[in-house]
Amino acid sequence: LFGxxxxxxxxxxxxxxxxxxLGFWGVFLLFLHLARQRxxxxxxxxxxxxxxxxxxxxxxxxxxxxxxxxxIGATCYAFSGYATSFPLQNPVILEVMTWLxxxxxxxDLAILSGNVVWSALASAPVALSALAGHPATMAYGLxxxxxxxxxxTVATWRARAAHVALPRAVxxxxxxxxxx
Length: 180
Fold this sequence. Notes:
Elements: H1 4-7, H2 16-45, H3 56-78, H4 81-84, H5 86-89, H6 91-97, H7 100-113, H8 116-132, H9 135-159, H10 162-173, H11 175-179
Helix pairs in contact: 2-3, 2-6, 2-7, 6-8, 7-8, 7-9, 7-10, 9-10
């Protein structure tokens, strides 16, 4: 796929390998984060008289499954047709889509922690995505970030009191205006 004979005529496309790798690791970390968050929600739900169900063997199995799912998801994202065919026509699209998983991971961590430091860190991929220069792909990324923010905010609002959920919602919304 990334052989010398394919890209030898156009050296502008060589940085695409770096963007594919960044996208791969971003999706991998995002999927691991979401799987571990789901597992911790499951452990909280089973924290009762049925606590022996969550044994170390079950925990190892869920970690291995989460790792495998993250690897498959990251591979599908990094080597999808969107990531491998468009760079030949317009490398800017790949440069923008590289930062999407990092943006979603940062916003999710900002909402779950309610920490402004995560908001500031999550604004970096938003800014890098905006600076790459493809407005349509950037709009798709912002739409995905808005849907993630809405989903996490509603879930946090239902699970916790308003005085806890409101700062987390603000922390999750800050990366967009800070990055732009």
